[in-house]
Amino acid sequence: MDGISLSEEDTYLRAKLTEINVSIERLTDMLNRMIEVISSIGEVKESTADISARVSENSTKLDSILRKIESSPVSTSGGASSGMSIEDKGAISSSTAVLDNLEAQFREGAIASDLSEKISAAATSLEEKGVTGSIVVKMNRWVRILKTYGRIDSVSPSDLGKIRTDLREWQKEITARR
Asked: Which of these, 2, 71, 75, 149, could form a disulfide with 153 (CB 3.0-4.6 Å)?
């Protein structure tokens, strides 16, 4: 009987050793994954440090450029435009931008009611910027013309051509104010 009990004990020990071996293999796999994660975190930290250094360099360069711009004298040469203040020039540039934005709305198949609202908004914007006179009057005339169309009608190609022609004139008037 001693032989049988020794054999059972050997089997039991072998089973336990196999369990321990499997557990060690699992721990080894987990440690290897943890090492991979830690090395990835290290790489991310290095990349972040590099990016931070570049941002700092760019910030320093921008500060230097801004100081140079602020310290440089503003040139007022240019003949007739030299009498205009910076605010006036800014208003004219802003008015030109309103007309340029409006120009993008003049396309084939444009719905008349939508275009009417956009021209009306542009006219209001120009009035707020101090533009008065024929430009705003002509824009409001186009608003009234476009309101004669049905709610979902597209603008006729001939009217679109006329609006574009008027827009070019409005742009010339704005640039003439410079």
From this structure: 149
